Amino acid sequence: MIRTSLYIATFTLILFGIVLLFVKPDTLILDRPIQFSQKRIDMTLDYIHTHYDANATHITIDPRIIVLHWTEDDNLTRSFGYFDPQTVPSSWGNVTQASPLNVSAHFLIDREGRIWRLMSETTMARHVIRLNMDAIGIENVGGEGSNANLTPAQLTANIALVAHLKHKYPKIDYLIGHYEYTLFEGTPFWREKNATYRTPKSDPNPQFVEAVYEATRTLGLKRASDIAPQGL
Ligand SMILES: [Zn+2]
Prior knowledge:
Low-confidence stretches: 15-25
Distance between the termini: 61 Å
CATH superfamily: Peptidoglycan recognition protein-like
Bound molecules: zinc ion
Structural class: alpha/beta
Strand order of the largest sheet: 1-4-3-5-2-6
Shape: globular
Number of strands: 6
Largest sheet: 6 strands, mixed
Mean pLDDT: 89
Helix content: 25-40%
CATH topology: Lysozyme-like
Order of helices and strands: HEHEHHEEEHEH
CATH architecture: 3-Layer(aba) Sandwich
């Protein structure tokens, strides 16, 4: 009888361990919110009205694409500082002209592989022209001087975060690097009322995106090159 109880106790412990393994991805996300007052909410809705849909009534997104970036800065504090202010710096040329809403991303991964959540995952962030209504943005601290210097710890963290997001939002179909966003031209994801609004992007380095993709292959995500224009 005692032996049976021991077996049951051991079995329960193992089961608990397995459950813990599955919830682990949630625990590795740390919250470090950027400023998001009513002002940023209003500017986000204005951005959607101007660029995507004049009749939109909310700033919520239904994630379909994960976009990987780097900040072009190797320092975490400075990288966070790019996204924290609510309005875009006046010196940012056509970015400022297109909207006063500052750029942002949902996640920022530092050089040690810590994952910082900057804002709600289902609120529109301004990180990828034309695709913002469908895309979750993951920024990586690094790439200063266009150096392909993202760390092994960042690679591990990106893989874990992509897997976590795909499980949380099963409708996510694509994993792309920011440099690939124009491949969506001609598809329903390609939204923009201003036909000329686009900027060439080269972040992050393609080898990094490929490595994240290879490691998450079993999730069945597609690459930007898989999308057939008008063929969704
Ligand atoms: Zn980018």
